[in-house]
Amino acid sequence: MRIVAGRHRGRELIAPAGRDVRPTSDRVREAVFNILEHGLTWHGFVGARVADIFCGTGALALEALSRGAAHAILVDDNAEALAAARRNVEALDETANVTILRNDATRPMPHPKEPVDLAFLDPPYRSEAERPALVALNDTGWLSPDAICVVELAEADLFSPPTGFQIVDERRWGDTRVYFLRCPAA
User: Fold this and answer.
1) Which of 65, 66, 79, 63 lies closest to 21 in space, CA to CA?
2) Number of domains composing the chain
3) Nearest Cα to Cα of residue 70 among 91, 98, 112, 90
4) Three-state SS for 150?
5) Which residue, of 26, 50, 135, 169, is most buried by count of CB atoms within 10 Å of its CB?
6) Domain of 132: which CATH number?
7) How far apart are CA 34 and CA 39, in angstroms?
8) DSSP state, 97?
9) What are the C-alpha distances in Å from 56 to residues 29, 121, 124, 186?
């Protein structure tokens, strides 16, 4: 697993052993970031604040930082995943630009200093954690009024966004389905 583009392009990332963490493949990550850069109307990565919810290795947030995001918040409740994410952050010398938070993302979380412009949600497949996590993020002020949320699920998982969230794009790659959502206006 590597960073696909930007200033950290080609740098390797580590993942914990076992099946508890399922990193987004390089191919899917590259496609998602291409859509974010060229297929959606939003202000882009430069200077953006990003949240990587159910972060696992932190690859999605680190890819965003590599492409110019200013700050990333990595959230997971798995200690091994957060340890791997922390090692990846340190290896890329991004410690000053990252906040790591051990928390169950389906429950209210501490309010960030500033809301995020982009949130990645990659919950364990078939966990149905994406809806409560989206609601928690929105209800606790994590999302800026024009934020984009990217939700990665198993291809077979059913998904309907919480009230106020609008699906603006949906893609499928193998056994993975990705939804791009506009967040409710403030």
Assistant:
1) 79
2) 1
3) 98
4) strand
5) 50
6) 3.40.50.150
7) 7
8) G
9) 14, 10, 10, 29
For residue 178, the number of C-alpha atoms closer than 13 Å in the C-beta half-sphere is 24
What mean pLDDT comes out for the span 103-125?
89
pLDDT in tens, 146-180: 899 999 998 888 899 999 999 999 999 888 899 99
Residue 19 lies in a domain: no
In a domain, 21, yes or no: no
Q: Residue 158: its pLDDT value, please?
A: 87
Is the residue at 76 inside a domain? yes
* Inter-axis angle of helices 59-66 and 26-38, nearest 10: 50
H helices within the chain, ranges in order? 26-38, 59-66, 79-91, 130-139
The amino acid at residue 171 is: R
Cα 138 versus chain centre, distance: 15
CA 178 – CA 109 distance, rounded (Å): 24
Nearest to 157 by CA among 147, 166, 170: 170
Q: Using alpha carbons, select from 14, 23, 26, 29 the residue that is nearest to residue 83.
A: 14
Place of tokens 């506009």: 182
Question: Tokens at residue 39, please?
Answer: 């297929």
For strands 143-154 and 176-182, give the pairing: antiparallel
Q: Which two tokens stand for residue 123?
A: 């919950």
Full residue range of the structural domain in which residue 36 is found: 26-182
